[in-house]
Design a protein that fits this description.
single chain; alpha/beta; 5-stranded parallel beta sheet; 6 helices; 5 strands; 46% helix
């Protein structure tokens, strides 16, 4: 079975990547491995700007809005874990609706490129499909820093989705 790793961060690019990865899995009898690395350093504004923020429940919206009003710094671990689980659950639901075999990995914590590459090696994936840009947008490059680092270091087929 062809193993396809898809790192997700709640961005529109990772949502598009899931569709591409699902198509590949269907065509090549593959299995998706969905992973998420905690969004360390992101503040409430960043988190509310996620394309998946519509999936946040009312109490989470209230907490994030209060943090925005108070101009607090990076979100605490408890919030990052909650959002990470929402992201994984949402992508698992989408994969399931496509009828694709998949596994969700435990939430990862650390430098995103390093954590994703560790999972890639652990599961011996033949392909990684990920958004060219994620939560951090930069106009200076076609690729985000995480995807660029992964594509430079990975020893498998790498597909970027914009």
């Amino acid at each position: 079975m062809h193993k396809i790793l898809i790192p997700v961060d709640g961005s529109i690019h990772s949502m598009k990547a899931l569709r591409i990865a699902s198509d590949l899995a269907a065509k090549y009898q593959g299995r998706l491995y969905i992973c998420h690395v905690l969004l360390r350093g992101k503040d409430a504004n960043d988190l509310m700007a996620l394309d998946i923020s519509s999936q946040f429940d009312k109490p989470l919206h209230q907490i994030l809005n209060k943090a925005i009003s108070a101009n607090l710094g990076p979100a605490p671990d408890k919030i990052l874990h909650k959002i990470g689980q929402i992201i994984l659950d949402h992508f698992a639901e989408k994969a399931s609706s496509h009828g694709i075999a998949f596994e969700t990995m435990d939430i990862l914590d650390g430098k995103p490129a390093d954590e994703i590459l560790k999972v890639l090696e652990e599961i011996e994936a033949g392909t990684i499909v990920m958004g060219t840009r994620g939560v951090t947008h930069s106009e200076s490059s076609t690729f985000g820093s995480v995807s660029q680092e992964i594509f430079n270091r990975a020893n498998c087929t790498c597909i970027s989705v914009k």
